Amino acid sequence: MTSPRLDTQEPETAPRTLTIESLRARLARVLDLVAREGAFRYRLIGTAAALLRGVPLVPGDVDFLAGARGDVDTFARALGAYRCLTPPTWMPSAWQYYAAFEVDGLKIEASTVERPSDSPFLETLGRGPWEHFSTIAAGDTRVAVVALELRLATELRRGRKEHADLLIHWMRDQGCDPRLLENALHAQGIDEHTRSSVLSAVIG
Prior knowledge:
The protein is 42% helix and 22% strand. It is of the alpha+beta class. It folds into two domains: 1-146, Beta Polymerase, domain 2 (2-Layer Sandwich), CATH 3.30.460; 148-204. A five-stranded mixed β-sheet has the order 1-2-5-4-3. It has a two-stranded antiparallel ribbon with strand order 6-7. Helix 1 (20-37) packs across helix 3 and helix 5 runs parallel beside helix 7.
């Protein structure tokens, strides 16, 4: 999820290299605080979702896709003791209701993405993230994480080849859902040649 362009604050300290262990610890802490505040319908998306699955990527922040604006408000109340980078704000140009906080030098964001979509195969729009996900342990917490197939399609659409190559390598070794990947690539408008090359690289 790309943060909206607005007058926001940035973390006061440069983010340290985020390991999977430190990501698990932060997620467990944040989601525990949010659970105490109220219901929170979300999916972990972006590079942090890939790292939590074991892909060797280094996120610059942590992105929660929220199901509704009330979920963003719950997130913001729960993190009220931390430095607020952006209070809950509606961003009409981005179709997002967005908030961000700094937790131990790391930006953690929650946002709706309200642009309409009929596709069930996109990472942040429509039914895709709510239908295609799994839960992964972070301490005693189970984190709802978007399907990696949807994440790879996003990276390819954004032209981030280095990230895409790491995802392809991981999926080739660990497995994936080929049909879901093909549908996600098509939904993102990836050209036929690239779709064929990616599927061949992943499936073998």
